[in-house]
């Protein structure tokens, strides 16, 4: 018997149809992604895949988006047990006098960490950020050192924080890419199911302190599907910026935009671009872990065929254009001789996309025992007569 490699090739369009994901219209054209923002960096949360980038490593000012790191430091202290939501810090005169957006804290009053975090996240309170910084580190300068410690630790290589608020400073600098790293790490490090008092605060639409109600400044949380964070920022030097996140059907997008010209432009562009990301990029469930990809014929086995499966899911994140150009092939030497043990590598699945290929082992999904001597002889004779393996009859 001569064994020949069996190769089967599937176009992504066929796989999409087979897995119930819909039919691709041949006349459709992939989206062209642009933005009026001066800097932009948009990624998929799970894979880190870059969905859109524009001047992402160009130095820029973070403005109040720097407060995300202020919150990050506080979350970390609480997670480590060094700080408690009910701990109270005294409002200093420095914090009380600070201009810009405010929580309207009263000098000399004691404010809980929980209230300060709400003031920073929802109201973008500069006074709340300074009180939190001074309460944790003694001075705002010392707190900025801790901000930079964590920035360096999580890979923000082009960032230097100078204060807890993002207030203009000649030495304050970051990039859109670094802000994306920061937001991604915050969400990953403090999952909402484990820390329900942390990240979910970013999605609150309003917060009242000192009888003053203020709305969340993040436009995404007002109607953009799945939006749950994070923070806006604005100074004359930096323009209007936003770090945003949204999750739909298990897919999360992290977005950083900066350098826009108005609140209106920031609102419209962040909504437009977030929706476009989810339309253009999707996770395609080609095969789940353990789902049969194909079947191989078995030679001289108690079963005539064995299922071929993957040991990991094949759910690539693809743009519309990438999906159309994706090709998957499977290859093995057919038939496969028994005995076969579950987990044995039988062949290979290769997926080609974006000009690159990736190979995954195809494994046997079941054990297949070898036929007894007389059944093997009978099967061999049948093969000689009919020229192909036939389903054996196993004596019981």
What does the secondary structure layout of this molecule look like, with pairings?
Blueprint: E1 4-11, H1 12-18, E2 39-44, E3 50-54, H2 67-79, E4 88-90, H3 93-97, E5 110-112, H4 113-121, H5 126-137, H6 140-153, H7 176-189, E6 206-209, E7 212-215, E8 227-235, E9 239-248, E10 251-260, H8 263-280, E11 281-283, E12 294-299, E13 305-309, E14 317-319, H9 320-324, E15 327-334, E16 336-337, E17 345-353, E18 356-364, H10 373-386
Parallel strand pairs: 12-16
Antiparallel strand pairs: 1-15, 2-3, 2-10, 4-5, 6-7, 8-9, 9-10, 11-14, 12-13, 13-18, 15-17, 17-18
Structure description:
It is a single chain. By secondary structure, the chain is α+β, with helices and mostly antiparallel strands. The chain folds into 2 domains: 4-21 and 286-386, D-Ala-D-Ala carboxypeptidase, C-terminal domain (Peptidoglycan synthesis regulatory factor (PBP3), Domain 2, Sandwich), CATH 2.60.410.10; 55-240, DD-peptidase/beta-lactamase superfamily (Beta-lactamase). The chain has helices at residues 12-18, 67-79, 93-97, 113-121, 126-137, 140-153, 176-189, 263-280, 320-324, 373-386; strands at 4-11, 39-44, 50-54, 88-90, 110-112, 206-209, 212-215, 227-235, 239-248, 251-260, 281-283, 294-299, 305-309, 317-319, 327-334, 336-337, 345-353, 356-364. Strand 17 (345-353) and strand 18 form a beta hairpin. The chain starts with a strand and ends in a 10-residue tail after the last helix.
